[in-house]
Write a structure and sequence with these properties.
With 212 residues, this protein is an alpha/beta fold. The protein is 41% helix and 16% strand.
Length: 212
């Protein structure tokens, strides 16, 4: 298992006063919001990253909550959301940007740089008052981004569990709105809810074998 470090953050902090690690979750889900996590790192955080911070996909669900509590005690963080109505009206890239702005803006201070996971700067023209640097696999390799992804994942998963109580037939407590066998079977049997991204569902609803 790969362990993230704060080596890049330490290098960036030679030039900047603050590094904000950013990552999103929920981009590929069929239902529910997208969430963007942001974690702010200064020099005082470099020697004290909590044990267990990893790419959220590599952390067992049973352990994510306790690690998120350690992160919340370690560094400032925010999680921003864009709901399904924004995703449908504005598109996924604009929805991600709006969620990211909500998460990042409260953390920006002084001479600041944003460390963003991936190879596409979907924060372009976000006017956050901070430079943006991209790193592929940042959620795996760089602690601030791993922490941001985990905080977003825990927050969004909790929201999907709440939505599951409204619509238990779709198994959102288990699949978190992503395409699972049970989720697609429920969609084909019952149709979509107000929490589904309708523009993403045409193929699934017209062809029950479309994803399998």
């Amino acid at each position: 298992m790969s362990h993230p470090s704060l080596d890049l953050e330490a290098e960036l902090l030679n030039t900047f006063d603050l590094v904000i690690g950013v990552d999103e979750v929920g981009r590929g889900a069929l239902a529910g919001p997208v969430a963007v996590g942001a974690v702010a790192i200064t020099n005082e955080h470099l020697g004290s990253m909590p044990e267990g911070v990893r790419d959220s996909k590599l952390v067992p669900e049973s352990k994510r909550g306790s690690i998120s509590e350690l992160i919340s005690s370690w560094a400032e963080f925010e999680v921003g959301y864009s709901g399904v109505e924004v995703i449908e009206a504005q598109g996924i890239t604009k929805a991600l940007k709006m969620a990211a702005i909500a998460a990042i803006r409260p953390l920006v201070s002084g001479n600041c740089i944003i460390l963003l996971d991936g190879s596409q700067n979907w924060l372009v023209d976000a006017d956050l008052g901070a430079e943006v640097t991209l790193r592929v696999k940042a959620d795996r390799d760089h602690g601030s981004v791993s922490a941001a992804a985990l905080m977003a994942k825990v927050s969004r998963d909790n929201q999907m569990r709440e939505l599951h109580r409204e619509h238990p037939e779709y198994d959102w407590h288990s699949n978190k709105g992503y395409a699972s066998n049970s989720h697609i079977a429920a969609l084909q049997s019952l149709g979509p809810t107000e929490h589904h991204r309708l523009s993403w569902l045409a193929k699934i609803l017209s062809d029950q074998n479309s994803l399998f």
